[in-house]
Design goal:
This protein is α/β, with parallel strands linked by helices. It has two domains: 197 residues, Isopropylmalate Dehydrogenase, CATH 3.40.718; 148 residues, Isopropylmalate Dehydrogenase. Helices cover 42% and strands 19% of the residues. The protein has a ten-stranded mixed beta sheet, with helices on both faces. It has a two-stranded antiparallel ribbon with strand order 6-7. Strand 6 and strand 7 form a beta hairpin. Helix 12 packs across helix 13. The chain is globular. It starts with a strand and ends with a helix. Bound molecules: 3-isopropylmalic acid and manganese (II) ion. The site of 3-isopropylmalic acid (IPM) has 4 residues, from helix 5.
Length: 365
C-alpha cells in the first residue's frame, strides 16, 4: 500500500520519540512491502516562534493532503509558554483546531499492564491481579472543551464561563465506537458520567442507553466519574474491557490511568474522525528531559501501531509492533522512569535503544 503521512514532531521530547516511531514505521514498510511518503510539518510552540503560528497554513495543507497524521507532544517550558498569547499556545491554537479540522471524535487510549509487568505500577501486585486491560474511549471534539469560553465583567463582578455542549449525533457516534470495540473484545462496556449533577451527562446517558439496545450481546455497566476515579485505584481490573468517557472526564481519567501503569510514557493514543485520523502520545512534551535520550518511546511507537491499524487498516503489521514492544518489556527491559531499586542497570534502555530493539525484533521475525 502507498500512503502519505504528515509528521508533526512537536516540541520537547517530541522529535526524539517521533524519530523512534518513524524508525519502526520504516521497518514495517520494508518488511511488508508498503510505501509511506512522510511529509514533515511544523506544529506546536516552536512552530509559533519559528513560523508565527502553532498550526501554520502550510501544515494545515500538508495534513489536508495526507492520508493520516503522526503528531508528537507539544509545549515548551513555562517561561517559553508565558511568551505566547493564550490563543496561540499549542493547546488552544493547535491541538484543538487539529481535532476540530478532522472531526477526530474518537480517542482510543489503551491501559494495558499484563500481570508480569505489575512491578511498573504503584499499585500492589494483588491489585493488578491478572493484569489491567482497559480501552478508554474518550469523546474528543465536544463538551466543555469546545463550548463558548467567556471571561467577562458584569456591573458588579468579574466572571468566566465555559459552556458544555453535546449534540445527540456526537454522543451516538462515540457510543457506537465504544460498543463496537467491546463487542470485538467480548468485553464489558462501562459508561462513565456525572448524571447526578450535569444535564449533559443525563442527556449522554439516555443516548448511550438507547445505543445499548443494539448491543444486547455486550455486557453494560455505568459508573459516576468520581467513583470511577476511586475504583480505578482500588480495583482497576473490574473495568477490564472498554470505558466510555466524555471529553473532559476522559482527559482526567486517562492521565490517572497512566499513573496506574506507572508512567505516562506507556500511554499511546489514536484520534479518529470520519475521513482521517491522527495518532499522538497521550502525554506532554516533558521539556525537562528533552534531548537526553531517556524518554520512553513506547507511547509514540504504540501510536504508530495504532496508525497502522486504525488509520491504514493494517492489522497484522499493527499487532507485530505491539508484540515487539511487549516482548522487550517481558524480557525485563525498561526505560529509566520504569526502573526501580531492583532493576539490573544493564536492562535500562535509552530512547534509541528501545526503538532499536523493536526494529530488531520486527526485522528478525
Ligand atoms: C490530552 C492533552 C490535551 C487535552 C491538551 C494538551 C489540550 O491533555 O490530549 O490529553 O486536554 O486533550
Ligand atoms: Mn490530557
Amino acid at each position: 500500500m502507498k500512503k502519505t503521512l504528515a509528521v508533526l514532531e512537536g516540541d520537547g521530547i517530541g522529535p526524539e520519540i517521533t524519530r523512534e516511531g518513524i524508525k519502526v514505521l520504516r521497518t514495517i514498510e520494508k518488511k511488508y512491502d508498503h510505501e509511506f511518503v512522510l511529509e514533515p510539518a511544523p506544529f506546536g510552540a516552536a512552530s509559533y516562534f519559528d513560523e508565527g503560528s502553532p498550526f501554520p497554513d502550510k501544515t494545515k495543507e500538508i495534513c489536508d493532503n495526507a492520508d493520516a497524521i503522526i503528531k508528537g507532544p507539544v509545549g515548551l517550558s513555562v517561561e517559553e509558554m508565558d511568551k505566547i498569547p493564550q490563543e496561540s499556545r499549542p493547546e488552544l491554537g493547535a491541538i484543538l483546531p487539529l481535532r476540530k479540522r478532522f472531526n477526530t471524535y474518537a480517542n482510543y487510549r489503551p491501559v494495558r499492564l499484563p500481570k508480569g509487568l505489575a512491578s511498573f505500577s504503584p499499585l500492589r501486585d494483588s491489585v493488578v491481579g491478572d493484569g489491567i486491560d482497559i480501552l478508554m474511549i474518550r469523546e474528543l471534539v465536544g463538551g466543555i472543551y469546545f463550548g463558548d469560553k467567556v471571561e467577562g465583567t458584569a456591573t458588579d463582578m468579574k466572571y468566566a464561563s465555559d459552556d458544555c455542549i453535546y449534540t445527540e449525533e456526537q454522543v451516538r457516534n462515540i457510543a457506537i465506537v465504544a460498543f463496537d470495540e467491546a463487542r470485538k473484545r467480548k468485553a464489558l462496556m462501562t459508561n462513565v458520567h456525572k448524571a447526578n449533577v450535569l444535564a449533559t451527562s443525563r442527556f449522554w446517558n439516555a443516548i448511550v442507553e438507547d445505543v445499548a439496545k443494539e448491543y444486547d450481546d455486550v455486557e453494560y455497566a455505568s459508573v459516576i466519574v468520581d467513583n470511577a476515579a476511586f475504583q480505578l485505584v482500588i480495583n482497576p481490573t473490574q473495568f477490564n474491557g472498554v470505558m466510555l468517557l466524555e471529553n473532559m472526564q476522559g482527559d482526567m481519567l486517562t492521565d490517572q490511568a497512566g499513573g496506574l501503569l506507572g508512567s505516562l510514557g506507556l500511554m499511546p493514543s489514536a484520534c479518529i474522525g470520519p475521513d482521517k485520523g491522527y495518532v499522538e502520545p497521550a502525554h506532554g512534551s516533558a521539556p525537562d528531559i528533552a534531548g537526553q535520550n531517556k524518554a520512553n518511546p513506547y507511547s509514540m511507537i504504540g501510536s504508530i501501531a495504532f496508525l497502522l491499524d486504525k488509520c491504514l487498516g493494517l492489522q497484522e503489521e499493527s499487532d507485530a509492533v505491539w508484540n515487539a514492544m511487549f516482548d522487550i518489556l517481558n524480557q525485563g527491559f525498561v526505560t529509566g522512569e520504569l526502573a526501580n531499586a531492583t532493576t539490573d542497570p544493564k536492562k535500562i534502555l535509552s530512547t534509541t535503544d528501545f526503538g532499536d530493539r523493536v526494529v530488531d525484533i520486527l526485522s528478525n521475525s
